[in-house]
Amino acid sequence: MLLIPCPFCGARDETEFAYGGEAGIERPADPEAATDEAWTDYLCFHDNPKGPHRELWFHRDGCRRWLEVERDTYTHELGAVRLSRP
How many C-alpha atoms does 38 have within 13 Å on its Cβ side? Predict the structure, then answer.
């Protein structure tokens, strides 16, 4: 079980959060003009590292904000936690 340190609510159990996937993925700039290949890359192909990784977590049962969390996928050790860009 992870304890995620929310900047607003303090350390909370991971069950209060919803996992939002990999952080830093850029949506196609012009969605109407994007090719099927561009959409497939955006939706389906993501890194799956063994080690440090940036993730998005939504504090569903708390402040209802998106957080960017640095987590080691091997040890589950948490690093920096900050507000995600809107």
Answer: 10
Residue 11 near residue 81, CB atoms below 8 Å: no
For residue 38, give Cα distances in angstroms to 26, 27, 41, 58.
11, 9, 5, 26
Residue 38 in contact with residue 28, Cβ under 8 Å?
yes
pLDDT, tens digit (0-9, with 9 covering 90-100), for 50-78: 999 999 999 999 999 999 999 999 999 99
CA distance 50 to 75: 9
| Average pLDDT of the residues in 4-20 | 96
Q: Identify the DSSP state of 14.
A: G
